[in-house]
């Protein structure tokens, strides 16, 4: 029911920057955001949390991206963005937007995922 659409991925040289954006929407119902965030998965590796932000503004970052990546969100607009600076080759992965939502019409709290966007950092 809830759709997450990501944008902003691409190819960038090491040391460069990218900004990922994600928007959550639903056709035929209303919902509210509890938390949104970004996860990433490199080939042959486990999916890991990159950053997350609650509707109250509390943020969480993976140690590997602290000081380089910055997450922001707007729970009213149901969007989240990830500013990625000083990118490294090891940041190369598919990045997935995640949203934890409350859907009152179906009385359900659920996690939804975007389709993923590729970020490739060349050395």
Highlighted features:
123 residues; mainly beta; 4-stranded antiparallel beta sheet; 7-stranded mixed beta sheet
pLDDT < 50 stretches = none
Range of strand content: over 45%
Radius of gyration: 14 Å
Tell me about the largest β-sheet. 7 strands, mixed
Annotation field: number of helices: 0
Overall morphology:
elongated
What is the string of helix and strand elements? Answer: EEEEEEEEEEE
Termini separation comes to: 40 Å
Helical percent range?
A: under 10%
Which structural class do you get from the secondary structure elements? mainly beta
Mean pLDDT: 96
Strand runs, count: 11
Quick summary of this structure?
The chain is built from no helices and 11 strands. It is mainly β. The chain starts with a strand and ends with a strand.
Task: Walk me through the structure.
The chain has 123 residues and is an all-beta fold. It is built from no helices and 11 strands. The strands form 2 sheets. Strands 2, 4, 5, 6, 9, 10 and 11 form a 7-stranded mixed beta sheet that branches. The radius of gyration is 14 Å and the shape is elongated. The relative contact order is 0.33. The mean pLDDT is 96.
């Amino acid at each position: 029911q809830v759709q997450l659409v990501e944008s902003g991925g691409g190819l960038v040289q090491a040391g460069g920057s990218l900004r990922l954006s994600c928007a959550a929407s639903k056709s035929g119902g209303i919902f509210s955001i509890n938390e949104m965030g970004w996860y990433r998965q490199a080939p042959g590796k486990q999916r890991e949390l990159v950053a997350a932000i609650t509707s109250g503004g509390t943020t969480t970052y993976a140690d590997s991206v602290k000081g380089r990546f910055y997450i922001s969100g707007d729970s009213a607009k149901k969007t989240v963005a990830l500013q990625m600076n000083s990118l490294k080759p090891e940041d190369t992965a598919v990045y997935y937007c995640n949203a934890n939502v409350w859907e009152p019409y179906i009385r359900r709290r659920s996690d939804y995922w975007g389709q993923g966007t590729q970020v490739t950092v060349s050395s």
